[in-house]
Amino acid sequence: MAEILRLKEILHGRFIADPVSPVRRTLFGGQVAAQALRAASLTVPDDRTAHSLHAYFLAAGDASAPIVFTVERDRDGGRYSGRRVTAHQGDSVILSLSCSFSRPTEGATEFQAATMPAAQPPDGLATYELNPLRTFDLQARVPDDPDPYYRWPARLWLRISEPLDDDPNLRACGVVFLSDLCTGLTRMPQCAETALLTSLDHAVWLHRDRDPNEWLLVDLHPVATSAGRGVYSGQIYDQRGTLAASLTQESLFDRVRIRQSNT
């Protein structure tokens, strides 16, 4: 993970990420979003940390090709910085991302309405097998879940095993990477009848600085489906139950059409 977040600046505001595979295959969207956020973070003042992003996945990326990230500096205010990032491969734009950074301050209130669901601690659970070609050194463990899901878990502990540097923006990028894993639409009753779920857009709000080298619980749940698309939301908690981040994603959700006779 540390390696894929190590970008090279090739021009002012333009960065490149090396290929992650010797053979052609589809990129994991969480990787591209995390790298785009990293590119943006390299252009803001040192005292500013990412607190929100909204990414649109525009085309499938190729893991065997480099990615070029172009950062537009929208504004640097007294406390906040806004950036826009486009990720290119050849002539194709594969991702467009808007993000905001702030200078950390002590807030007047600390509050969270969401409560972490009951979940067995990760240390006593078996490892859940991920695809290491797409998720690198991300580890997963799945607690018992009383709510049914189809095929992929919608509640799971995640962490990055290789240490990231002590940089709040690198930690934010790590949280964004794991925020795109799995989907809350697996809890939809029609999920077994759908084509698989290509991500369209992904939004993350980073409420608190948390270390993705420590176990974080990702809890996902569906919101609605219509017009061939589905929306789910989720929360990310640390082991003490503190809400670290919230997320929302829209994905394709096309039901498999069954030809029916007119008779």
Compose a concise summary of this entry:
By secondary structure, the chain is mainly β.
Q: Could you describe the 3D structure shown?
A:
It is globular and about 50 Å long. With 263 residues, the chain is mainly beta. The chain has helices spanning 29-41, 132-135, 168-179, and strands spanning 8-11, 14-17, 49-57, 67-76, 80-89, 92-102, 127-128, 138-141, 155-160, 199-206, 216-226, 229-237, 243-252. The model is unreliable at 257-263 (pLDDT under 50).
Supply the helix-strand structural class: mainly beta
How far from one another are the termini? 57 Å
Q: Give the H and E element order.
A: EEHEEEEEHEEHEEEE
Q: Which strands sit side by side, in order, in the main sheet?
A: 1-2-4-5-6-3-10-13-12-11-9-8-7
Unreliable stretches covering 5 or more consecutive residues: 257-263
Radius of gyration: 19 Å
Number of E strands: 13
Strand content: 35-45%
Helix content: 10-25%
Q: Write down the oligomeric state.
A: single chain
Overall geometry: globular
Mean pLDDT: 93
Tally of separate helices: 3
The biggest sheet, with number of strands, parallel, antiparallel or mixed sense and barrel status, is: 13 strands, antiparallel
